[in-house]
TrEMBL record:
PANTHER family the record matches: BLL2464 PROTEIN, SLR2013 PROTEIN
Transmembrane segments annotated in the record for this chain: 9-27, 33-53
Domain DUF58: 201-367
Keywords on record: Membrane, Transmembrane, Transmembrane helix
InterPro entries xrefs: DUF58 (IPR002881), vWFA_dom_sf (IPR036465)
Organism field: Paenimyroides baculatum
Protein name (record): DUF58 domain-containing protein
Length: 440
């Protein structure tokens, strides 16, 4: 009887019987009423025990979990439940979720008709990458008066890996589609670029660059001919992720590092779909992962696997090392998207010389996160002098963020100033804007 559980109704019925016996001490009539009620309760419990325990596998359950979970997104878990009894039952489900969720009150309720099947779904939103261990699925079945329950336990434990957000990739692909980007009636024309990718030889017309005159072809045709070059489509896009201590700051349960990882995966997928080459570079004191830019679809899988294992050691990042290492690793002019965060102007100025040097050789786009907690503090109602001081300090830090953005833009460094939750969409819009400007 280790699977027999007494419900709240049982204790309420027992309380009523106890009260009747207490009253019966003074009025004998209620003593006999208490005996009758007690006999009825015992009989009902005996019937329910027989009904629930006469069949060993009265309720069966199968939990279906995706092979991988997507970090920061809703992931659906399915429970396939079958009632093998010849009568309807009421069930309560307690699924043992991974400890990362810290969920102590998870409970689902439902009714099952006799000899029926039912699928029950629920969603979970993981907030960090890594391995998640699901425990057993416990189902408590009861019938008739619901005085007792029988527990059915699915002892299958499952371990699932949580990867960077991949469920929303399709949604961002649609946002980046050409039809969604261009206003009606506007046609994109190809720009004659200055890259070394030769296209064809054409007759010279006023306005063509004289440096591109093809003298051999001109001598043969007896008039000026010029080389035209096709704009290079496969441009390098490197995703630089700072793993320093400032990226461990949490917002809505997720760290800035995880927000950056999800956005980096999204942009890598989009850039490869648009024929650009995506590369990955994660660093702290030194380079942790470096994947050379490529536009093969296998590159997305490599980036996913690399992003899954990224973590921080809470150290100060070494931007001087990044600058010197970039001279060896990235020879061609590229779009460098730097995921980092500066909370003070002094912190920026320590790294600004290295960022300026990077921006001279490449197109540098820096991601700066808006501290939404400061907005919450600023919008609070003032009830005391202490609140005034706190709001003043919050306003100072918020203003300093805007000074950081101005300082970067003043030195020709492009920026995306965004709330962590809006990073993916804002980054995608900025990437498409840079592509339209054709400045890479």
């Amino acid at each position: 009887m280790k699977f027999l559980y007494l419900n709240t109704r049982f204790y309420l019925a027992l309380l009523i019987v106890t009260i009747l016996f207490a009253i019966g001490f003074f009025a004998p009539f209620f003593f006999y009423v208490a005996l009758i009620v007690l006999a009825v309760i015992v009989a009902l419990i005996a019937v329910e025990i027989f009904l629930l325990f006469h069949k060993k596998d009265g309720i069966t359950v199968e939990r279906i979990v995706p092979e991988r979970l997507s970090n920061g997104d809703k992931n659906e878990i399915n429970l396939n439940i079958k009632n093998n009894y010849a009568f309807s039952v009421t069930i309560e489900i307690i699924d043992e979720l991974p400890f990362q969720f810290q969920e102590r009150n998870f409970l689902l309720s439902s009714n099952l008709e006799k000899d029926s099947k039912k699928q029950i779904n629920y969603s979970i939103v993981p907030k960090e990458r890594g391995l998640y261990q699901f425990g057993s699925t416990n189902i408590y079945a009861t019938t008739l008066t619901k005085l007792i329950s029988k527990r059915f336990k699915n002892a299958k434990n499952e371990e699932v890996a949580v990867y960077p957000s991949f469920l929303n990739l399709r949604k961002h692909e649609l946002l980046a589609s050409k039809t969604a980007l261009l206003p009606n009636g506007i046609k994109r024309t190809r720009k004659v670029g200055q890259s070394s990718e030769f296209e064809q030889i054409k007759d010279y017309v006023t306005g063509d660059d004289l440096r591109h005159v093809n003298w051999k072809a001109s001598a043969k045709k007896q008039h000026l001919m010029v080389n035209h070059y096709q704009e290079e489509k496969a441009q390098n896009v490197y995703l630089l992720i700072d793993k320093g201590r400032t990226m461990k700051m949490p917002f809505d349960g997720m760290s800035l590092l995880d927000y950056s990882i999800n956005a980096a995966l999204m942009l890598a997928n989009i850039s490869i779909k648009r024929q650009d080459k995506a590369g990955l570079w994660t660093f702290e004191k030194k380079t942790d992962v470096f994947l050379k830019a490529d536009n093969k679809m296998l590159q997305v899988r490599k980036i996913v696997d690399a992003l899954y294992h990224i973590d921080t050691n809470f150290k100060e990042s070494n931007y001087q090392y990044v600058l010197t290492d970039s001279l060896k690793k990235i020879q061609k002019r590229s779009l460098l998207i730097l995921f980092t965060n500066f909370e003070t102007l002094d912190a920026l100025k320590r790294q600004l010389p290295y960022l300026r040097a990077l921006a001279k050789k490449h197109v540098l786009l820096t991601i700066i996160f808006e501290n939404t907690l400061l907005n919450d503090v600023h919008n609070r109602k003032i009830n005391s002098t202490k609140d005034i001081y706190i709001q003043t300090i919050a306003s100072k830090f918020a203003h300093e963020k805007h000074l950081i953005i101005q300082e970067l833009q003043m030195h020709g460094i492009k920026t995306v100033y965004t709330k962590p939750a809006d990073l993916s969409v804002n980054l995608l819009n900025k990437y498409l804007e840079i592509k339209r400007q054709e400045i890479i």
